[in-house]
Amino acid sequence: MTEAGTAASSAATTLPEPVRQRVLTLAAHALGQLPASDIPAPLRRFASFAPAKRAKLSASVLGPILDTDDHFRRLAAFEVRREHPELGDAVADGVAVPAADPVEVAALAYLLRPDDWEQHVAAAAQVPVENPRADEEAVNRLADQLDQARTETRQVRERLREQVNELKAENVTLRRKLNEARQRITGLQSEVEQRTKEAGSADERVDAARAEVERELRKLRTRITELEAVEHAARRTAGQERELASTRTRLLLDTLLEAASGLRRELALPPGGELRPADTVAGSEPDAAPVGRTAPEDDPALFDELLALPQVHLIIDGYNVTKTAWPNSPLHSQRQRLVTALGALVAQRRVEITVVFDGAELSGPVQLNPPRGVRVRFSPAGVIADEVIRQLVRAEPPGRPVVVVSTDREVADSIIKLGARSLSASSLTARIART
Q1: What are the start and end residues of every segment in region (Disordered) (predicted)?
Q2: What is the pTM of this model?
Q3: CA distances for 131 relative to 127, 128, 134, 226, 322, angstroms
Q4: Partner of 401 for a Cys bridge, out of 95, 259, 312, 354, CB 3.0 to 4.6 A?
């Protein structure tokens, strides 16, 4: 035995009886909360008992183990402190609790073993023991209550005996009635058997008719379900077509209106077509500025001019741009940097932007937080991003300006045939760098 175990044993043997009883009660309660692997073998058979029974029956074994097994005592102390957090923390931290019961404090101090635990035990030893005479009076009072309970139990037992006799007499009567009922039932069984045979043939005919009706009902329900599905699909398709047509018409109308307004401003057209008095004054007029211009696809100025078109839709080949701008970064970093930069572009120019990434590059679900106004799409399985870009261009109404950013010549040639404008990835990266 170690010096700590010897000291603990010596201290435990000097515990005041109230403190020792409280220690055993707390430890017995904690015993039921511990896993079987942490419980010493002699105590495991008590772990499944009720707390009161466990404390009573395990006292002779639990006390010596608490005195000698510091590991088990610390496990029990942990459970006791968890059950009594406020007082346990105060005792463990050496904080005085004047209102607490000295016996309770000493029991917790014995289990938790703070530096001043022996002082708590000594303070509990100074608590006066209750008056034996008062205990004797309490015992006498309990004895009187026990006698009264026995008398009441005897009276209840006599009443129950009388009720049992009454029930026995009633049982005899019921048995006689039961025998008479059985005789009547035996007489009726033959009649029931005869009628059952007659009803059997009728039941067969009814079952056949019911089966035929159920078959017809199933056919009708299947047909109704099919018709309802067709009707629902037709309604949904018609609604989607109406909504898509309305959206395409509205976008085209907005495009035409803004284009007409921009053309009026660019050509400096007068607000009305009639002749004004100032038009009669002779003078030299300036030459008109040229409308539109040609420029290479990577010209940043051309990119800004296309973004200024009314209702323009900017479609971006995602990985084509990111692998040009940040080829050494991971794919997830490339995606987030691109959509973040495009968010700033949306805030400046108020354009509609759609970024398409190739779904074949993905190894699992994508975590991406695109800013407001930036639409992100991944191509479905078996479909490349180039085809999704062409679908987006085809979905736009004729006349709306659509600009596709991609260095892929195949993509550029195909979307030009569809009426869209193509720009290189370097024009977008140059514009992002300026932003």
Answers
A1: 268-287
A2: 0.38
A3: 12, 9, 5, 91, 90
A4: 312
